[in-house]
Amino acid sequence: MSSMERICVVVCGVLLLMSTASVGWEQKHDYKLALSKSLLFFEGQRSGKLPPNQRLTWRKDSALRDGQEGGVDLTGGYYDAGDNVKYSFPMAFTATMLAWSIIEFGDGMAEGGEWINAAETLRWNTDFLLKATANLPNTVYAMVGNPNSDHNCWERPEDMDTPRPVYAVNTTHPGSEVAGEIAAALAAASIAFKNYDAAYSWRLLSKAKEAYYFANKYQGSYNDAIGHAVCPFYCDFSGYQDELAWAGAWLNKATNTKKYQKHVDAAIRKIKFMEEVTQNYYIDTEFSWDNKHAGLYVLLSQIGQYKKEAQTFACGVLPESPTRTIKYTPGGLLFKTEGCNSQVVGSLSLLALIYAKHVRLARERITCGNTKFPAWKLVEFAKNQADYILGTNPMGMSYMVGFGPKFPQRIHHRAASLPSINAHPSFIACGNGFSYLDNPNPNLNELTGAIVGGPNTGTDHFDDDRRQAAQTEPTTYVNAPFVGVFAYFINHKK
């Protein structure tokens, strides 16, 4: 048994002892299997030199020279979606969600036999984020690849021959949102790894502090610094104050202090001021790679801060709440966006479970107007969303590839749709792959565990068509929160 495995035995044993009380839910789906597959998906998104234990063997090494144009090693990490570009901002949010899932619901991962896989999935991400912050205190690398040339190709990552420029933010061209989210991710991951690999945890926390100092001292949006590259793909629409507050809150948690509290409060005051000025109120049900508002308040509520705002989130999503702001499809799926709606489903479901855990432990109830709800109503909400994704829906379709008898066969994903190197060793040029995009046949490779965008019109209809990217494209930040959701329900059943 390796030292890593011995540590996991100890950690997983402790996590199992920490398991929260079970709730009597009907287990409609195999959540252990869902957890296993949701983690396997990330192996299909890996960039760089693949390890010997790579399980999705139709994927091979790719982008082995990333970073050379900037004189830095930026190999590794994850392709964010069905293309071949690497964006540090959504990749960091993915890491934060994976880390938070491990922190809160690692007991379910241990029982499901997936704790090591979850830790390795997170580490593949944080190893890249450490590279992206290697030149701090002056530079954070925000992106690798030219999105326009990449999107003009339908090409396997193994064959990629498009330009791989490096985009960075620095002291004169700042990017507080990307640096702030990286700081949050590294701080959260330092907690997840603390009892697993103490030296790595310390390294993560040290770099998180550096990233936060950079983000906070040199404030500005990467929209202004490198917007020509990141927009319209990953523009920051909500401003960067939420990332500054989010990062400060995670650093407080990781250091078990209130050292960053004044920065957190200052950023939240600016957020609230802008909400009043613009009449754009985000705090209720906004939580994504771009917008941290609801997640921030749920995190802070765990230490008794901003409880009102956290309750506003809960009341905004509960179907029976008199102050509900979320819409639902006739089949019960929460509907918020026509662009990859599943990312909202996953992130808000994870938040609901984390907040429900806190409310239950505090022996409190959720007050929405004149109505009070027990914590288990939030659990019920999250379970209904998870079950819908896994197949309890009017289409009778699982929106996770490889799960259940019926699932999407034509996902919007270059590597999955093109023949693998195993099947077709010869090079497939940039433009030659579009015949596979337009082909009506199922994908040639199964990207097992990928959760696609799902129904996106406010109805329950889904088009299994790889040309409909909003419905059929998977992303890392869709899967990441579902890792925690599925882990939770492994331990919460009849």
Automatic annotation (TrEMBL):
InterPro entries xrefs: 6-hairpin_glycosidase_sf, 6hp_glycosidase-like_sf, Glyco_hydro_9, Glyco_hydro_9_His_AS
GO biological process: cellulose catabolic process
Catalytic activity: Endohydrolysis of (1->4)-beta-D-glucosidic linkages in cellulose, lichenin and cereal beta-D-glucans
Signal peptide from the UniProt entry: 1-24
EC number: 3.2.1.4
Annotated SUPFAM superfamilies: Six-hairpin glycosidases
Keywords: Carbohydrate metabolism, Cellulose degradation, Glycosidase, Hydrolase, Polysaccharide degradation, Signal
Domain Glycoside hydrolase family: 31-485
Active site residues per record: 412
One Pfam assignment: Glyco_hydro_9
PROSITE patterns registered for this protein in UniProt: GH9_2 (PS00592)
UniProt-recorded Gene Ontology molecular function terms: cellulase activity
Similarity-based family: Belongs to the glycosyl hydrolase 9 (cellulase E) family.
Name assigned to this protein: Endoglucanase
